[in-house]
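SAMPLE LOG
Freezer: B-3
Tube label: C17
Construct: single chain, 81 aa
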Amino acid sequence: MGEKKRKDRNNFNFIFNKRNYKIMLVGLAIIAFGFILMSGGGSDDPSIFSADIYSFRRIRVAPTLVLLGLGLQVYAILSTK
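STRUCTURE (predicted):
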């Protein structure tokens, strides 16, 4: 009886498999890249306005990449295979 409990205790299974972790890492990299694209565009002098903050890259591309990465994270968590 005691030996069976020890064997059951040693039988440890991970919740996610290798594929899930790979998808999570890709999603994390896409999120990080999106935040990198969002950064910058400011001015060194606070009294001078810089219109670079409203560029297409910062307004459209970067948030889209962040949302895509978050979607991949959700997919990686919910996928079973």
